[in-house]
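User:
Can I borrow your eye for a moment on a structure tokenisation matter? Would you put together a sequence-and-structure record for a protein of your own picking? Please set it down just below, with no commentary around it:
AI:
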Amino acid sequence: MARNDGVDRSVVREEPLRRSSIGIRERHNERKNEAYSNADVMPERSYLNIHFKQPEASYESILNHLLNEKIVSDRGLRQDAKVFGEMVFDVNTRYFDEHGGYDYAKEFFAEAYRCAVGIVGGEQFIVSAVMHADERNRAMSEQLGEDVYHYHLHVVYVPVVEKKVLYSKRCKDPALRGTVKEVIMQVSRSKKWASKPAMDEFGAPILQKNGKPVLKKSYSVLQDNYYEHMVAAGYTDIERGEVGSTEEHLTVTQFKAEQKRKRHDALRAENAEIEMTLLGLEEKKVDSENELHDISQQAEEAQDRLKELTPRIKDTEAFIEKHLGKPEALLPESGVVERGTHYREEK
């Protein structure tokens, strides 16, 4: 985390978004607002913002297109599910100011965008990627006596995971049951950001005393991916940061505020993990409800078939009785059964 100690730290923040709130984020990122609550946004500089992926329609329309073209699937999701995510890639303001400013930031965040494509799983799942160059860093500007701008990258995307859909037990072909029917890209934030097993220096999972793997929080994995990608690309003068970092620690009041912010971010991270767990449970519930619905539908079909067959059976019985008589009338009357000893006596 940036601590105003002269060390440049990378940080990426990730936030889930619902359809109902995506319009607000779109207006901010794409600079569609006429006024901004953030007084440090300078609209006269917005022309300097750089799109690494320009949205061709509204964020929600792009999601609808992905769904309609079956590029992604929202099967089983709740109506208010978090179907968007936003990552904000950042390094403290001083880093860019000391490395050449705007032009250096463009190169840096072009590489950060390539990192985002890898994290998301493909450029087709990215809705928009824009570097903001129009937000003034008030603290540094006042400290240096000139305008200094804070460069950062917003990437809005659709969180997906690869999901194998299997043939059900009701499949007519027994050989297909349980085999893969199709592979879809399922919209699922809970699975996209599930915790991963922690690995040791040899690439083996680290285990707890009870033998279960130690899990590494998804946000920690995200920080690792960003930092490692940028270092591998040649940006070796940065250090790994944490969620919620900032460079504006110039007063005691600001320092105290940042401590509260750190605690807030920790609570948010924990809350996000709980939300992901609950979402996973909701998805399982939806799967169970769908299966119950299928069973109910089969029962209704069986009832309909029974109603259809009952009159036909009665008609058939009536026809047989009319033309052949009752079955018992066609059979001979039973006589007395004689024992074999009587037969031998008569002989």
About this structure: The chain has a mean pLDDT of 81.
